[in-house]
Amino acid sequence: MTERKKDKDWYMTLVTFQVSSFIPHILVVPRHTLESRSKVFEDMFSFPPPPDTEVEGSSDERPIRLDTIKADEFRSLLKVLFSGPSGPGLPLSSAEWISVLKLSQMWQFEDIQTIALDNLPYSSVKKSVVKKVALAFQYDIRHWLLPGINQLARRPQPISAEDVQVLGLDVALKVAAVRESLVVTNAGNAGSPTSTIGSPNGSPCRHSRHCLTTGDRYARSVDFTPTIKKVFGLPDQEPNGDADAAGPPED
């Protein structure tokens, strides 16, 4: 028989995964793509299997088990991994892109992580501002931090116990510190700017040197960016996100 040579580019080894422990799903994908783009999978596949043992991932009966990974999350990652150059233009939802970001960080797909971040502008995600800030810290979505924390700082409601559960105590205390940085400006001298901070309905204070009142907190037009950077230790130059898309504070 004539000697045959396996092509280095187009002879693919497939690997079998089982994801989701609730209703297990079996998926079979090319191994080369995983190990060429992920340091984690490269290291995983570099270990020689034990002797006289079926290689994990070689069949449906012997899959690589990813019980903590949801099937939809894994599918979202595979859509991007095997999309070719059209990856950035894929019609994925924001929830799918968050799944892609989560798994690309977990398994060190650095190029996929960059694509996911580029497809997650702050205004595209329809979640509460508290959840978006929590996600920003969880997955290092830096361009969400300024618009998200600004929105939390501007809203009339104080930080609640429910917010603390979502954000974590450390982040919640820092957000509270940003909110408490709101000060009353000078309003009594001719030619000086009048304050709308703390006055009912944001109307200027006309009859006192300082505007100190009880009632609703008014900070809708305040830019807390310098204080946020100081309290959270953010660099002066943040990645370009839609910082102006934070919108009004949540009611």
Number of strands: 3
Alpha-beta content class: mainly alpha
Helix segment tally: 10
Radius of gyration: 26 Å
What ranges have pLDDT less than 50 throughout 5 or more consecutive residues?
A: 187-202
Secondary-structure element string: EEHHEHHHHHHHH
**Biggest sheet strand line-up:** 2-1-3
Helix content: 25-40%
Largest sheet: 3 strands, mixed
- Overall mean pLDDT score? 84
* Beta-strand content: 5-15%
Q: Which keywords apply here?
A:
single chain, 251 residues, 3 strands
Summarize the structure in words.
Helix 1 (31-37) packs across helix 2, helix 6 runs antiparallel to helix 7 and helix 7 (145-154) packs across helix 9. This protein has helices spanning 31-37, 39-46, 71-81, 94-106, 110-118, 129-138, 145-154, 161-167, 169-180, 225-232; strands spanning 14-19, 25-30, 64-66. Helix content is 38%, strand content 6%. It is mainly α and 251 residues long. Strands 2-1-3 form a three-stranded mixed sheet. It has ten helices and three strands; from the N terminus they run ββααβαααααααα. The longest helix is centred in the middle third of the chain and has 13 residues, at 94-106. Strand 1 (14-19) and strand 2 form a beta hairpin.
